[in-house]
Write a structure and sequence with these properties.
Layout (H helix, E strand, L loop, with lengths): L1 H17 L4 E6 L9 H9 L3 E7 L4 E4 L2 E4 L25 E4 L4 H8 L6 H11 L3 E5 L7 H7 L6 H17 L2 E3 L4 H12 L26 E3 L4 E2 L1 H10 L4 E5 L3 E2 L1 H9 L3 E5 L3
Parallel strand pairs: 1-2, 1-5, 5-6, 6-7, 8-10, 9-11, 10-12
Antiparallel strand pairs: 2-3, 3-4
């Protein structure tokens, strides 16, 4: 009986390993920051999504599980052990990256395409590989260590304006910002939108149980009232409906990649006066 139970347990384990679940990476600035995000991890698990945690150990090094990862550089090692990936390789294993907080320095590096820190290199690699990057929008721009040292919670106004500018630049490259407490829900919705839906199985009579919805006319018009039209927004909107024109305000910024996507699909841009 014991052998039978052991064989059954082994078979169950092998079958479980064959089912691959999507996985996201949460990147934190220290090893205690993740404690406030337990509900996020529960939400991900409920929706069948795994997660890993990465803790920064300085600007140019971090810990992912038992592996210490370091940025490459002149006279420096790429990894502290032979099994640790380089920072650029980290996003390969994940559907996307979640960064609850980002500071002014790393936002600047990522927006300018500069490497040299774990955060900037991971953001760069994820976007190049067309993986999503989610960052908390209700953040101060000061990392936790700086807030403790300087005994302040916010940047002065000039630095705050600069930080907002870098956030806008990152959005143009494809980074998404969402309220910190909703990052897990945003990750779930993004993964669901990117996962192809399995066709409905035919019924016993041979007919599909669900009929496809009628397509939206190509000449439909979409009105956008935000400040930045990104390529990611265009892609998401086209999944929901087809349209032939896009109306935006005169102050709205349209990223270069978004403009190319609209041009390739023959979608016209109409500017409307803002009241």
């Amino acid at each position: 009986m014991e052998i039978k139970q052991m064989v059954e347990a082994i078979i169950r384990e092998l079958l479980a390993q064959q089912v691959t679940r999507p996985k996201v990476l949460y990147l934190f600035y220290d090893s205690t920051a993740h404690e406030a995000f337990t509900d996020h991890f529960i939400t991900l698990n409920i929706h069948g999504i795994d997660h890993d945690l990465m803790f920064l150990d300085g600007e140019a090094s971090c810990w992912l599980g038992k592996h210490k990862i370091e940025c490459g550089g002149r006279g420096k090692t790429i990894a502290s052990d032979e099994f640790a990936p380089a920072p650029l390789e980290v996003p390969l294993e994940y559907e996307g990256i979640v960064i609850p907080e980002i500071d002014l320095d790393n936002a600047a590096r990522a927006a300018l395409g500069m490497k040299g820190t774990i955060v900037s290199e991971i953001i760069f690699a994820a976007l190049v590989q067309h993986k999503f990057v989610l960052i908390g929008e209700d953040i101060s721009g000061l990392k936790r260590a700086d807030r403790r040292t300087l005994q302040t919670l916010t940047l002065p106004t000039p630095y705050r304006n600069l930080f907002d500018y870098y956030k806008m630049e990152l959005q143009m490259y494809g980074v998404e910002f969402a309220p910190m407490k909703l990052l897990a829900e945003k990750a779930v919705s993004t993964i669901r939108a990117e996962t192809p839906q399995t066709p409905t199985a035919p019924t016993a009579e041979g007919a599909a149980s669900v009929s496809p919805a009628a397509p939206t006319p190509e000449y439909a018009t979409v009105v956008y009232d935000g400040r930045l039209v990104s390529a990611e927004w265009i892609t998401r909107e086209l999944r929901n409906q087809s349209f032939g024109s896009l109306r935006v305000g005169k102050q709205t910024i349209i990223s270069a990649l978004a403009q190319d996507m609209l041009k390739d699909r023959g979608i016209t841009i109409e500017y409307i006066a803002e009241g």
